[in-house]
Input
Amino acid sequence: MIFTLGQYIIDIDIERTRAFYREHGVSFAEICGCSDCINYVKAIKTAPPSVLDFFDSLGVDLCKAPEMFNVIGDYDANGLIYYEGFFHLVGEILEGEDAWETGEVREDGSYTEHVKESCLHQLAPNFQIAFSHKENLLEEGFPDPHIQMEVFFHLPWILNENK
Output
């Protein structure tokens, strides 16, 4: 199915994506067990219905990200926790820039990377996405062709324990 999202036109095989998330893996929070991950799995369920529906329309299980982390380590100015991560989708980017660009290149040849702000597409306040050809932590057996959806969320802290 073709989706147009900001600068991106993507072609996603929804059923193959959904089947993979249904049949493979567990929640990363179950693997990690830290309070930030457990909070994410609970807090993502409080996202606006339009955000939850969007991810469902792609076949993505929001609790099964290959990677999700709290970047800032504390609350943002609005009292929310900032999470970054990514999901893989069965499909292709038909139009749109790859979200990642190389930053500083060090003397030893290593380098930094960052997501270009111009590539971010806002789904709702505090929920942004972008797309890439990267294969970070690609799950074993994930179908080809595939793309990576970068996600940037601000979510409430809802666990009973203090952050």
